[in-house]
């Protein structure tokens, strides 16, 4: 366990050193603050809760941005060290291969988690300080969004590790990472939407659509944040969908956690079999 | 002394149709310095990777400090191994001392005394600089420093002296000798044959994945029977009849007026020397030139690929 922590700490230190931590945190904070203050402009003073609106806009943005950052941070983690020749040395130390994957993963997730919590937290606090803190429900929704964003980041970091372990070189890994992002973040939903329109409700029954949404971590995140809280769901225009798709928030979180654990386990198993 | 630290028994490693090494039987003892020689692709690095458990043998068994290095339970035992990879690379954003303390922590070693270790490899001044700014030789020295962490019982060094200047090379071999005398097993792989000749207790010659020869320098010389050259310094233009005196034990060649070269078989060396000593006129000087590792190596290679 100590070894895992040493490896994680080293990853965090190198993240601080090459400015990943600073850059990510600033980016997150800047976007969150922009959305929090500019994003509430269209609502004006019509009694709509600014914090709840921010949850909608910020989580929509997170779906695009966070997976991209997570994949960029992680696709290189193993294959890059193989190519630079630093991994061979590390593996000659009293370090298990599972520990290498877990330690580095924890380090990267900590970087991403720190950036998310701090970046979004600052925006949330700014709204509260500005007297637009909203009611308890909106605050809970905002905190839940921060938490699930960290989980979404961890899921895509784990996916990036899987990509990094299976790739022969960095170029392939980068391509696969972009492919995973395009596929899960953009194309999947477009495909699903297209299928729904074309299908006219013949084959795609509610349970099937429900299952299809649960397969994709970004959709799970979307469902959790945009439909989990009634107010937010109304603003997000997801109320109609939520009415039909009854999935409990606990199940959504569990699925998201599964998206962290399964790719990471697969990456560990493949890494243990790999020869250098 | 006969405590074996590393054993390879009938080891082969194949990558698809390509055979990297085959039929390797090798055991390394405590307190021994072994030189692994062979040209690029001869399988030196593959053997070292097998000993580290980075790859698994296709055939045969590897044991390092009593464990199969590729097994999960061998992880702890790796604290007793020091490794310097060929073309060592480090994360470039770290400073020398940061990296060493990271590696020391992984080996559960104290992080005090790292400055001394850096000073030992001549990196005292560069300790606080980023590794990215290091020259090739400095990276190599940092590589050595990390391999020496925690007084390893087995040291596997792949091309350790590449990029080192002569003075550092000497210091490096001093360090190696101290470790060996303290009971460590040191395996050096190198192209620098002349250097190894004086330092290694035993030489293992690899060619195309096979062990071609192994033994002390004297044993290797006995294996190939390369001619020994003896240079005589004599008063000008004496001994025109030397071939008769030697009686067919060796061939003679007059290099110039006062230097004669005798070439003879290794096993005739003493007989030839006795006859020279018994010569009535003063032989001013005798120089005996044994076949070098370079020459032995060339002969092994020629024997392997008859053309």
Keywords:
heterodimer, A: 276 residues, mainly alpha, B: 307 residues, alpha/beta, four-stranded antiparallel beta sheet, 32% helix, elongated
Write the layout of secondary structure elements.
The complex is a heterodimer of chains A (276) and B (307).
Chain A: H1 2-17, H2 20-38, H3 50-74, H4 79-84, H5 86-91, H6 97-129, H7 136-166, H8 170-199, H9 206-215, H10 217-227, H11 230-236, H12 239-244, H13 249-273
Chain B: E1 4-15, E2 18-29, E3 33-37, H1 44-52, E4 59-64, E5 81-84, H2 96-106, H3 114-120, H4 136-148, E6 154-158, H5 166-181, E7 185-190, H6 193-199, E8 202-207, E9 210-215, H7 217-224, E10 228-233, H8 242-246, E11 250-256, E12 259-264, H9 269-277, E13 285-289, H10 293-304
Parallel strand pairs in B: 3-7, 3-8, 5-6, 6-7
Antiparallel strand pairs in B: 1-2, 1-4, 8-9, 10-12, 10-13, 11-12
Helix pairs in contact in B: 7-10
Strand content of chain B: 25-35%
Estimate the strand proportion of chain A: under 5%
Number of strands of chain A: 0
Query: Low-confidence stretches of chain B at least 5 residues in length (pLDDT < 50)?
Result: none
Computed Rg of chain A: 20 Å
Shape of chain B: elongated
Distance between the termini of chain B: 42 Å
Helical content class of chain B: 25-40%
- Topology of chain B as a string of helices (H) and strands (E): EEEHEEHHHEHEHEEHEHEEHEH
Average pLDDT level of chain B: 86
Biggest sheet of chain B, open or closed, and with what strands and sense?
A: 6 strands, mixed
By secondary-structure content and strand pairing, the structural class of chain B works out as alpha/beta
Q: Separation of termini of chain A?
A: 25 Å
Number of helices of chain B: 10
């Amino acid at each position: 366990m100590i070894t895992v922590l040493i490896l994680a700490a080293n990853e965090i230190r190198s993240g601080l050193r090459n400015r990943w931590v600073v850059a990510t945190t600033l980016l997150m904070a800047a976007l969150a603050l922009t959305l929090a203050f500019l994003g509430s402009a269209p609502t004006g003073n019509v009694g709509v809760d600014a914090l709840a609106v921010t949850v909608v806009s910020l989580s929509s943005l997170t779906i695009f941005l966070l997976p991209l950052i997570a994949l960029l941070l992680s696709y290189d983690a193993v294959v890059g060290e193989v190519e630079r020749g630093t991994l061979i040395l590390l593996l000659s130390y009293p370090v298990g291969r599972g520990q290498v994957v877990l330690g580095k993963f924890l380090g990267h997730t900590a970087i991403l988690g720190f950036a998310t919590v701090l970046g979004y937290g600052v925006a949330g606090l700014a709204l509260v300080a500005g007297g637009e803190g909203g009611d308890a429900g909106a605050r809970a929704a905002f905190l839940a969004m921060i938490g699930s964003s960290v989980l979404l980041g961890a899921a895509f970091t784990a996916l990036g590790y899987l990509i990094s372990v299976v790739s022969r070189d960095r170029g392939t890994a980068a391509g696969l990472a972009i492919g995973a992002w395009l596929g899960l973040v953009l194309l999947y939903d477009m495909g699903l939407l297209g299928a729904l329109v074309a299908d006219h409700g013949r084959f795609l029954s509610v349970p099937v659509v429900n299952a299809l949404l649960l397969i994709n971590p970004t959709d799970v995140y979307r469902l959790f944040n945009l439909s989990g809280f009634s107010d937010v769901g109304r603003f997000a225009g997801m109320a109609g969908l939520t009415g039909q798709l009854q999935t409990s928030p606990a199940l959504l979180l569990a699925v998201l956690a599964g998206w962290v654990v399964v790719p990471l386990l697969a990456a560990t198993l493949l890494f243990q079999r790999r020869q250098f | 002394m006969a405590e074996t630290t590393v054993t390879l028994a009938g080891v082969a490693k194949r990558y698809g149709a390509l055979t990297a090494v085959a039929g390797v039987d090798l055991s390394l003892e405590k307190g021994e310095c072994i030189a692994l020689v062979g040209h690029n692709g001869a399988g030196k690095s593959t053997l070292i990777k097998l000993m580290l458990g980075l790859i698994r043998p296709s055939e045969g068994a590897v044991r390092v400090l009593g464990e199969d290095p590729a097994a999960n339970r061998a992880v702890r035992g790796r604290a007793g191994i020091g490794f310097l990879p060929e073309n060592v690379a480090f994360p470039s954003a770290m400073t020398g001392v940061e990296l060493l303390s990271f590696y020391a922590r992984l080996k559960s070693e104290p992080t005090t005394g790292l400055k001394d270790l850096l000073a030992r490899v001549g990196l005292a001044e560069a300790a606080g600089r980023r590794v990215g700014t290091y020259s090739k030789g400095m990276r190599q020295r940092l590589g050595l420093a990390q391999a020496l962490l925690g007084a390893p019982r087995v040291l596997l060094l792949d091309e350790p002296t590449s990029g080192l200047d002569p003075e550092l090379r000497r210091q490096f071999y001093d360090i190696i000798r101290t470790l060996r005398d303290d009971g460590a097993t040191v395996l050096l792989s190198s192209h620098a044959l002349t250097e190894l000749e004086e330092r290694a207790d035993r030489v293992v010659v690899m060619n195309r994945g096979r062990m071609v020869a192994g033994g002390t320098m004297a044993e290797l010389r006995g294996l190939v029977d390369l001619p020994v050259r003896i240079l005589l310094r004599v008063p000008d233009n004496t001994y025109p009849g030397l071939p008769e005196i030697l009686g067919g034990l060796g061939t003679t060649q007059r290099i110039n007026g006062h230097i004669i070269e005798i070439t003879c078989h290794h096993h005739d060396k003493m007989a030839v020397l006795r006859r020279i000593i018994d010569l009535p006129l003063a032989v001013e000087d005798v120089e005996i030139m044994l076949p070098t590792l370079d020459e032995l190596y060339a002969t092994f290679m020629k024997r392997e690929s008859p053309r």
